[in-house]
Amino acid sequence: MNVPSFTPQRLRKLLEIDRDHFWFSGRRKLVRQLLERPSRDTRVLDLGSGAGTNADWMARLGYDVTAVDFLPAGLEALRRRSPGVAVVQSSAEAVGLKEASFDIVLLLDVIEHLDDRRVLGEAARLLRPGGAVIVTVPAFAWLWSYRDDAAGHRRRYSGRLLIERMRQAGFEVERVRYYQCLLFPLAVVTRMAGRRDARLRDLEDMPPAPVNRLFRAVNDFEVRLGRAIRWPWGSTLAALGRKAAA
Question: Which domains does the chain have, with CATH numbers?
Answer without folding.
Answer: 8-240 (3.40.50.150)
